Structures are given as structure tokens and as C-alpha cells.
Amino acid sequence: MKNLMTSVHQFIEERDWNQFHSPKNLSMALGIEVAEMQEHFQWLTQEESKNLSEQKLKNVKEEIGDVLIYLIRICQVLGIDPINAATEKMILNEQKYPVEKSKGNMKKYTELQ
Question: C-alpha distances in angstroms, 76 versus 13, 39, 58, 72, 98?
Fold first, then answer.
């Protein structure tokens, strides 16, 4: 992850794109890339979405790359360690969704009893 983050940073620096990378702009770009990934699944059945063609899988993979790059950029601009953020969120998720209440259940934590 560190190597990827360094590579993304260097790529942006070489092109003088920091001037365009405000958190607002990056979050908007991230949302657009997520939507582009979702577009590949639009109108597919559950089964079809699990069995993508080789080309469709390649396209989804490219969009996932874009999503990750923009997420890394937001973290860099805001000074957030993405691994630490995800680790902390998993700890919170474990508290919100204890196994005994949430196993096999799709309810939101506020609806679990």
C-alpha cells in the first residue's frame, strides 16, 4: 500500500495536479468512478453479476483501480492513513454488529435487537 501511495503522489506531483485536488473535487471524482464501476452491473441478475465475462471483469478492475486511486488521494490531502481508518472502522463495526445479533441478518445495527 505504501508503494502505491508513493506512486500516486509522484504521479500527481509530476503533473502539477495538486492544485485541482481539493477534498471536494476528489470526493466528487470518487463518486463518479464508483458510479462507473456500478454501471457494469446495472441490469444484471444476481447470478450474472457473479459471473462476468472476461472483458467486463477487466473493465470493472480498471474502475476499481480508479476508485482506489481517488480514495488514496483524498487520504493524502486530508492526512488520513487509510489502513488505520479501515482498521478503526472494523473495530466499530464489530461493536455495532455482534455476531450473535447480526449473523445471517441484513438489518442495520440500529434495528438489531
Answer: 12, 27, 27, 6, 32
| Kind and range of the H or E run holding 112 | none
CATH number at residue 12: 1.10.287.1080
From the CB of residue 11, how many other CB atoms can be counted at a distance below 10 Å?
Answer: 12
Provide mean pLDDT across the span 52-69: 98
Instruction: Tell me the whole-structure pTM to 2 decimals.
Output: 0.89
Integer Cα distance of 88 and 105 in angstroms:
23
Q: Is the model's pLDDT at 66 over the cut of 90?
A: yes
C-alpha to C-alpha distance for 98 and 24, rounded to whole angstroms: 34
Give the C-alpha separation, 15 to 28, whole Å. 20
User: Residue 4: its pLDDT value, please?
Assistant: 97
Residues 29, 45 within the same domain = yes
Whole-number Å distance between alpha carbons of 41 and 97 = 28
